[in-house]
Design a protein that fits this description.
By secondary structure, this protein is of the alpha+beta class. Helix content is about 35%, strand content about 25%.
C-alpha cells in the first residue's frame, strides 16, 4: 500500500480533530464509524505526526511540512541517521539527525517555531529521499531506481513528471510509483499509477 493513501484518509477528515493520548489515537465521540474505519490503517503514521497530549485538526497535519514529512517517511527511517534540510529562506538550515532524533526534532519545531516552507530528508548513503513543500496540491512516490517522494505545489510535481518522461531510465528499469491529487468540492482524492501519468505527459 502506498504511503500516499494516508493523505487521502486525512484529506477526507477535513477539520475533524485528532488527539494522541498515552500513545493512543482518539477521535471525537461524534465521529461516525466509517471515519474510524478509514483512519485505522494509517494509525501508526498519524501517531508519528503528533506529540502525546496534542489535539490537531486532520487537515492541519497536511498543511505543516514538518508533520507531513513524518506522515510520509519510509518504513524504518527513524531507525537510521538521516540528513535534514529545513527551508525558511532561500538557503536551508542543514542537520544530521541521529537514529531516533528526527521525529522529536520536527515535533518540537511544530510546537514552538513558525512553519518552514519546505523540508527535505534523505536516508543514509542516499538510499531514499523525501521532499515536502507547502501548499500541498499534489504528491508522487517513485519506488525505483531510488525511492523518492515529492509532495507540494502542483507545478513542482508537474515539472518532476516532465523530467521522468524525458528520463527513459524510469521505464527501462520498470520504475514503479503513484501520483496523488487532492479531491475538489464533492469529489474524492485520486491516486493513479505513475507510469500512466508519465505517458500522458508525452501524449
Amino acid at each position: 500500500m502506498t504511503r500516499l493513501t494516508t493523505l487521502t484518509a486525512l484529506w477526507a477528515l477535513g477539520d475533524l480533530s485528532l488527539t494522541r493520548e498515552e500513545g493512543k489515537l482518539l477521535l471525537p465521540e461524534e465521529a461516525p464509524e466509517e471515519v474510524f474505519q478509514a483512519i485505522r490503517p494509517h494509525k501508526a503514521r498519524v501517531l508519528a505526526a503528533l506529540e502525546d497530549g496534542e489535539e490537531v485538526p486532520a487537515r492541519a497535519l497536511l498543511e505543516d511540512p514538518r508533520r507531513l514529512t513524518l506522515l510520509l517517511l519510509p518504513e524504518g527511517a527513524e531507525e537510521e541517521g538521516v540528513s535534514l534540510a529545513v527551508y525558511r529562506e532561500e538557503e536551508p538550515h542543514r542537520y544530521l539527525a541521529p537514529p531516533g532524533h528526527l521525529a522529536p526534532f520536527l515535533l518540537w519545531s511544530a510546537r514552538h517555531e513558525p512553519a518552514p516552507r519546505r523540508v527535505w530528508v534523505g536516508g543514509a548513503h542516499g538510499k531514499w529521499s523525501l521532499d515536502v513543500e507547502t501548499p500541498l496540491e499534489a504528491a508522487l512516490e517513485v519506488s525505483r531506481p531510488l525511492p523518492h517522494t515529492l509532495a507540494g505545489p502542483a507545478w513542482r510535481v508537474e515539472r518532476y513528471l516532465h523530467a521522468l518522461h524525458e528520463a527513459t531510465v524510469l521505464r527501462a528499469l520498470g520504475g514503479e510509483g503513484y501520483l496523488w491529487r487532492p479531491g475538489g468540492e464533492g469529489s474524492a482524492c485520486v491516486i493513479s499509477p505513475l507510469l500512466e501519468e508519465v505517458a500522458h505527459v508525452g501524449g
